[in-house]
């Protein structure tokens, strides 16, 4: 990603950025130290790269469609899901489920893995909407997916 910095004497405190095609236009105060500006620019670059990754994943792999088909096949359409989305800020967990709000967040890293692993993670998180803990009943639900053990092994190796 190419960066173009535009310094202005009229700008006093704030730094802003926008992405035009693949060019990051950064507007900054004239008197801002270069070292400080470099840190801000790297933060903007990370933010826009994550946004681009999320948009590509959402376009290529619609999680809502996947969850709907898995709900029908493995849960008999009993799971009521409010939302499911990819997130780029989740680096230590593959998935996260808020069972009270019926919202699921899937790490963008899962979008780069094979489809059968992605299905496992979605099923795992959907199972939390029925059983919010990792009890035997929870694992019985997850075990309905025939590649569950294989996917768990894949994810352990991916850490």
What does this structure look like?
The protein is an alpha/beta fold. The chain has two domains: 2-59, no CATH class; 61-158, Zincin-like (2-Layer Sandwich), CATH 3.30.2010. The chain has helices spanning 34-60, 63-75, 115-127, 136-142, 148-158, and strands at residues 2-8, 16-20, 23-29, 83-87, 95-98, 103-107. A hairpin with a 2-residue loop joins strand 2 (16-20) and strand 3 (23-29). The longest helix is centred in the N-terminal third of the chain and has 27 residues, at 34-60. It starts with a strand and ends with a helix. The mean pLDDT is 93.
**Multimeric state of these chains?**
single chain
Distinct helical segment count: 5
Q: What structural class results from the helix and strand content?
A: alpha/beta
Number of E-state strands: 6
Structural domain count:
2
CATH fold annotation of the largest domain: Zincin-like
Distance between the termini: 28 Å
Arrangement of strands in the largest sheet: 1-3-2
Helix percentage range: 40-55%
Shape: elongated
Mean pLDDT across all amino acids: 93
Order of helices and strands: EEEHHEEEHHH
Mind telling me which CATH architecture of the largest domain this is?
A: 2-Layer Sandwich
Low-confidence stretches: none
- What is the highest CATH level, the class of the largest domain? Alpha Beta
Give me the CATH superfamily of the largest domain: Metalloproteases ("zincins"), catalytic domain
């Amino acid at each position: 990603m190419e960066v173009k910095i535009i310094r202005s004497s009229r700008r006093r405190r704030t730094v802003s950025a926008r992405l035009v095609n693949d060019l990051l236009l950064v507007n900054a105060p004239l008197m801002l130290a270069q070292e400080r500006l470099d840190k801000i620019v790297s933060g903007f670059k990370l933010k826009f790269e994550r946004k681009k990754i999320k948009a590509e994943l959402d376009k290529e792999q619609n999680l809502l469609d996947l969850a709907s088909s898995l709900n029908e096949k493995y849960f008999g359409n009993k799971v009521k899901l409010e939302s499911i989305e990819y997130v780029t800020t989740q680096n230590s967990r593959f998935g996260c489920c808020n069972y009270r709000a019926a919202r699921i967040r899937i790490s963008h890293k899962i979008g780069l893995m094979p489809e059968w692993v992605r299905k496992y993670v979605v099923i795992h998180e959907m199972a939390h909407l029925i059983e919010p803990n990792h009890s035997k009943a929870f694992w019985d639900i997850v075990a309905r997916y025939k590649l569950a053990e294989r996917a768990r092994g894949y994810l352990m190796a991916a850490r």
